[in-house]
Each structure stands twice: as C-alpha cells, then as structure tokens.
Amino acid sequence: MLNLSYYMPVKLFYGADCIKQNACYFQSLGRKCLIVTGKNSAKVSGALDDVLQALEKHQIDFIIFDEIKQNPLLSDCVRAGKIAQSEQVDFVIGIGGGSPLDAAKAVSVFASNEMEPLKIFEGNYVNRPLPLILVGTTAGTGSEVTPYSVLNVDIGEDKVARKRSVQNLYAAASFGDYQYTRSLNQSITIATALDTLSHCIESYFSKKSNTISEGFAKQGAKLVIDVFRDLNGEFTDKQRQKLYAASIYGGLAIAKTGTCYCHSMGYFLTEDYQVAHGIACAVFLPSFLRLGCELDTKKADELLFELDDNLSNLCDMIENLTQYRPIYLTQTQKNELCERWKKDNKFASSPGNFTVADAMELIDEIFGV
Q1: For residue 156, what is the DSSP state?
Q2: How many angstroms separate the CA atoms of 91 and 89, rounded?
Q3: pLDDT, tens digit, 9 for 90 and up, residues 167-181
Q4: Which of 184, 205, 309, 315 has the most CB atoms at less than 10 Å from its CB?
Q5: Of 46, 342, 57, nearest in space to 182 by CA
C-alpha cells in the first residue's frame, strides 16, 4: 500500500539566476532584513551580490552578520538574534552552505523571542520565528528545504560544542542556483556530495521512510552516483547541476525521515578531529548500506537497479572517495561515546535493531581496537 503522507511548506525557487528572476519576492517579507552568513563563501560564490542587488532594487534595508563559522555556534546565533531585535528587522536571510543556513534558522527564533538559549531545542516558542529566506551555495546539506538546524552547543552545561538539532524550522522560501557552487574546490565538492549521498541512503532505509521520501532518495542517490562514476578531473557545470539537484532531493527525503546512524556517529569526528561533515558521515555509510541491503532485499534490489550498480562496487566507490585520518580511541573516549549514543534517536530510525553495542563494534572494525 502506498504511503504518500508528506509536508513541505518551503517555496523553492530553483535554477540559474533564480534570485534575479524572482527578486520581487523579497519585498513580500518586509522592508528590513538581517543577512546571516560566513566571512567568505557568500561573497566568493556571487550569492551575496545577487541578494544585495535584489534588496536594493526593492529598497529593502539590510544588516549583515558575517560571523558564522563552520559548525555554527549557538552563542553566535544568540548574538545575531539580539542584533536582529535591536535593529527591528522584518525577516532573516541565510546565505551559504549548511552552517550559515542552519544558523539563520536559529537566528530567526532568537530574533523574535526573549528566551534562555538552550530552550531553542525544546521547540516551544512564545512568538513565531521571523520569516526566513535561504540561499544555498553548496550541494550537500539540503538545509534549504529541511526543518533542521544543527548547532554546536557552547552555552550552559555542555560547553564543549557538541552538536544538537533544532526541529521544525522551515524557511518561507529558498533559492537554489547551482552556479554558486562553482567556487567550491574539488575536495569540498566531494565532501558535500558525500553528505548528500548519506542523506539519500540513510533516508531510503530509514524506518520512517515512505513512498514519497524513498522516491526522492533514489533520485538523489542516482544523480550523485552518476557524477562520481563519470568524474574525471574537475567537476563540469553539468555535474554541478546534478549535485545541486541531488542535494535538494536529499533534503526533501530527510525532511520526512531525518538521518540515521551515519550522521550521529559522524558527529564526533567533526567535533573532535575536524573531519569534514560529509566525509565523517561517509566513513560509516558503506556499513549502513550493507546493513540496509541485508535486512530489506526488496528495497535493496530497487535501489541497486536505480543506481545501475552492485553493492560491492558502490561500497568501494564510497570508501575510495572517503579520505580520513585513522584515529585511536581510548576506553574513556569510547565510554563517553556510548553514553552519548544511548540518548540518540537516530539509532532507532536505522534499519533493524541497531544498538550502541553495534556502534562500538563498528568503531573497532573501522578504526581498530
């Protein structure tokens, strides 16, 4: 029986020059905005210039907060929210990869609410978040169309910047123009594409998947695998178009299902060892793919048919693209991971009955005892 339940409130403007062609949308949200971004990517990609031209064309005032770092800090989101309050902005614009986009979602909450910072993870706000526009510059997270904001918590009891997710923060609108990804180098493009592939495969085999999310996941995975299979030197414009489309498909898929254990296990590699997020997830992706194929052969056959490949080749491809530094974990570190993972609901969404004990076996298998 088909399960077609789905919710997606984001208005998506997609394609080359979509900001220029739809600049009038910005004025529908107000007369003043806060732009949330990092120091470089929005400028280098050309996305910031396009947004500023759209704002100036429609006489919309703006303030720029360009202090978002890779793996955004909760404290920076709070500061940006206070600026938005003091400047009395009407809406927020996030420009960049997953970090600025996720940060902008949190800023939209703090901009309209006086609250203890950690309360943002509870999801009960007195006032609705400010309207939000997102402009993506990487082909990876799909944050443009997801309700999630992943933040590094550096406030309160947990000051070691552990990742936590805020739920149900959709943008009012997103602009998806693959041209902004041309400024990304080879390694970043591969890492973000692996993040997209992780989204698609994790979502596909998730216990929360349904007919619609599985369709998005298969289509996104196919686009990424097609690009990886044909990659010969630098990424072409056509390949970048495919990767950006794949990231949107992956975002649409995890908007329904969330992610699974590849993401939750990969977080510590990013936090403690500065492994790029997409690489950190992909470290665990071959094992996840094998597990999904083992436990649900019907779904596996459909996926492998769509990808026109076999399980062994796919796992080899992912492993060859995933460059990471081997690590040694002490027993104390392992115990800390166990305690952390006991609280992780992403394990429950994974296929089968994936447990903390299984996770530790996987750690030993990949990194050595």
Answers
A1: T
A2: 6
A3: 999 999 999 999 999
A4: 205
A5: 46
